[in-house]
Design brief:
The strands form four sheets. This protein has an eight-stranded mixed β-sheet. An eight-stranded mixed β-sheet has the order 8-7-6-5-2-16-17-18. It has helices at about 40-60, 80-90, 105-115, 120-135, 215-230, 250-260, 375-380; strands at about 5-10, 20-25, 30, 35-40, 70, 95-105, 140-150, 155-160, 185-190, 195-200, 235-240, 270-275, 295-300, 315, 325-330, 335-340, 355-365, 370, 380, 385-390. Helix 1 runs parallel beside helix 2 and helix 3 (about 105-115) runs antiparallel to helix 4 (about 120-135). The protein is built from seven helices and 20 strands. It has one domain (about 5-390): Carbon-nitrogen hydrolase (Nitrilase/N-carbamoyl-D-aminoacid amidohydrolase). Strand 10 (about 195-200), helix 5 and strand 11 (about 235-240) form a beta-alpha-beta unit.
Length: about 400
């Protein structure tokens, strides 16, 4: 069973203003190795990730206001983790949080990284050390992510999180190749601005049975936070590499998270859930024909009352009749830049939208990014040639 540890970070978001988030929906090309999944084209993938980091660092337009940058699960080659952290530390603006998923590495290597960033990962390091001492598991693959926080004074803090629940391709009858299951989830509490958030990796969101559930642990912790401090969980970021992002298992958890009528859950009722999935061209070596990578989304409680929209690049709905408002993106390679809602309950007299998409970027032929506008957003484009596509 996982446990949640509180991490207090010096992040000063603008008071009275909403935060901004950039979701990077990128394609993954993974290959199975003798111990796990690795990025099949590491240098090309690093070039793509670096182009986004440089776009954010340049801060053209509203991007200088960015607070949360999300990359999908298993996106970054492990060899370039330090390159990313160096770029963030040297060029990103203060008060920026970056979450990126990294390809599989061995548990022994993961422990070394925890040692490198020991100051911010004491609990995770203790958990991994205990597991290593209990058995010969240093070769077990780890699916993990990095949460890099550029604090208000410019200090870079690095938090590591291991996935707690594998998908079928990450499990094997050979115990030495079975995925390592992380046990520590950080809950980040920002000061002086009161803002609380967490990050999960894909199926960590849907791991449920009759007796234990990651989501139940998160809800209980958020409720405790509310009753003790009157604060709550403001943001739950879920990074994915998932061909079935709208599987009934995900829908059921969303329903329970926002619509549980048998329990009072004030700690999560007004949380924003952001799902950052990989793009539609993702290939992990198995048969992916007909599977639906893509469709990253943002989910809010129904009290936010999002206006119904149906465009080529995004749409809004209630996720099949749930007590939520969902902003659902397409499946192409895109960068989605939007604001996180500031107010939980809207005055019925206002015309302000709680969530607004500020810009959408598509890849260019020069390995850069082009901001989409006008007919491109309404009618869509296919790839880089600019041909008009069909409306969803």
């Amino acid at each position: 069973m996982v446990f949640i540890v509180e991490k207090h970070i010096n992040v000063a978001f603008p008071q009275g203003h909403h935060q901004h988030c950039l979701v990077c929906q990128l394609p993954n090309r993974l290959k199975r190795t003798d111990f796990g999944y690795r990025v099949a084209d590491p240098e090309a993938k690093w070039d793509q990730v670096r182009s986004i980091l440089e776009l954010v660092a340049a801060g053209k337009g509203n991007l200088k206001k960015l607070h949360f940058l999300l990359f999908p699960e298993s996106t970054l080659p492990a060899a370039h983790v330090k390159d990313v952290l160096t770029l963030i530390g040297e060029r990103f603006r203060p008060n920026t949080v970056t979450v990126f998923g990294v390809e599989h590495i061995r548990l022994g290597e993961y422990r070394q990284l925890l040692e490198t960033y020991r100051e911010d990962n004491e609990e995770a390091l203790a958990s991994v050390t205990e597991d290593l001492e209990a058995g010969d598991v240093d070769q077990a693959p780890v699916n993990w992510c990095v949460i890099a926080v550029k604090e208000n004074d410019g200090r870079l803090r690095v938090f590591l999180e291991a996935k707690s629940h594998p998908f079928f391709g990450e499990e094997n009858l050979d115990a030495l190749r079975d995925l390592y299951r992380g046990k520590v989830f950080p809950l980040f509490r920002c000061h002086p601005t009161c803002f609380n958030f967490m990050a999960l990796i894909c199926l960590d969101y849907v791991y449920r049975d009759l007796y234990q559930s990651n989501i139940s642990v998160i809800i209980d912790k958020a409720d405790q936070l509310f009753f003790e401090t009157r604060q709550r969980l403001d943001l739950l970021a879920v990074i994915e590499c998932n061909p079935k992002p709208e599987h009934p298992a995900f829908r059921d958890v969303v329903h329970g998270f926002y619509g549980e009528y048998l329990a009072y859950t004030p700690g999560v009722r007004d949380a924003t859930t952001v799902f950052c999935n990989t793009a539609g061209e993702t290939d992990y070596g198995a048969s992916t024909q007909g599977e639906a990578f893509g469709h990253s989304s943002v989910i809010l409680h129904k009290s936010h009352k999002l206006e119904r929209v149906q465009l080529a690049e995004f749409s809004t709905d209630d996720f099949g009749g749930l007590p939520v408002c969902r902003l659902r993106f397409g499946r192409e390679t895109r960068l989605y830049f939007f604001n996180l809602p500031l107010f939980h309950e809207l005055d019925p007299r206002t015309t302000r939208a709680p969530l607004k998409i500020h810009s959408i970027f598509r890849p260019s032929r020069s390995s850069g990014w082009i901001r989409m506008a006008g007919e491109e957003i309404v009618r869509g484009v296919n790839g880089e040639n600019g041909e008009t596509g069909k409306v969803l």
